[in-house]
Amino acid sequence: MKIEFQNELPDLTTIAIAVPKGAAPSLGRLDDAGKALVTAAAKAARFEGEAGSIAEIFVPRAADVGRVILIGTGEGKGVDYEKAGGALAARYDTAGVDAIGVDLSGADAAGAARFAGAAAQRGWRFDVYRTKLPEKAKPTLQRLVIAGAPGGTDAEWAETKALTEGLELTRTLVAEPPNILYPETFVERCRHLEELGVKLTILDEAAMRDLGMGALLGVSQGSVREARLLAMHWNGTGTDGDPAIALVGKGVTFDTGGISLKPGPGMEDMKWDMGGAGAVAGAMKALALRKAKANVIGVVGLVENMPDGNAQRPGDVVTSMSGQTIEILNTDAEGRLVLCDVLTWVQRNYRPKRIVDLATLTGAMIIALGNEHGGLFSNDDALADALLAAGRETGDKLWRFPLSPAYDKLIDSPIADVKNVGPRGAGSITAAQFLQRFVDEDVAWAHLDIAGMVWADKPGATHDKGATGFGVRVLDRLVRDTVEN
Questions:
Q1: How far is residue 28's CA from residue 31's CA, in Å, rounded to a whole number?
Q2: How many other CB atoms are there within 10 angstroms of residue 180's CB atom?
Q3: Is 336 a residue of the active site?
Q4: One of 21, 61, 143, 262 is an active-site residue; which one?
């Protein structure tokens, strides 16, 4: 969808008018008869300007019929404009309308940008493999022309557009089928980041074997698809030095569970078990596109977990890159095995003072939080508070869970340094406790368990059913709030 900002609305057949909650719509464009018709229709529809609410009225024009859309912007907060922009795109994406002029008079620059960004994000579709799409299901809305926004909107929109393109990369990666997206092709999908100034470092299995990354490689050994480690480094500070923050993502491009095989029904969803890695890639693209004044490293471990004759077995003991040994009790608890080696690698090579990892790590997190929040675990209150604030601001909401030595004891192994699963209870917490054992003492670390958030069975304000892009916005906001000068 093409987004344009203009001083005046063009003469389009379809016009949307932003209406704050409890306010009367601005109908100066209409004649008296049109004003009366719109006012009466809004009253009949009980339209009161709640964020994202819509009233549609057809009015006569000189040579045809025009469509007037009243779109509620609520209390005028950023999230209200986001709901409004997303609702407009959702309603008219396939409605036969090719262009909408939007009167956003009264919005500030940030609100106008969030409105436009939400419309573009909500209009994203993944129809790549649909060859028989019904005519009425095909998207028609190609252009949104926004007028009435104040000065400074262009700069705000440039930032929001960068974020939107990062989200699109993440959603595409998550939505692709696993025969198309696997470790090697994930890397190829990120090659274009080099053109934006992102430095890529790629390790193949031989290189990881030389480094002793036995935990990650143990997950991969049952697949014919080779594992990869991909590091994406953006330094927009103009100075050398270690990255201020590392973003780490779990990239299991398909997860059968391995020998601890998952039930068949629903296994197809496990193509999105690389949602954490997808979020890191999308966030790095957003940072590069908006030329963030920050030094950030994003690292993802990419594997496929399959159950062939060479697959890892329950009962195996592997040695991680850190030197710690791990007893494998369940091969479906594979994400933490991938992440622990990636955490060690990034700390040894880049020495970040802060790390945030993202992973679709545990089904227990969906039991605890459903699909409304991602889980947050952290050894540092300041980092946790910054992430919670970023989640509230962006809508990528998080909820903090405890860490404690009492939980840590649940994953002590009788024959190795640690076992990869604890008992049934507190499954998400023991998974986080496992990862914490691989974080250096002087590093502020947070773990985001986003198992219930990267894929949606119902539409949201800025996404349709399917890939959500969860994590990109909260990471971008975290960097903006805590790292950029």
A1: 8
A2: 13
A3: yes
A4: 262
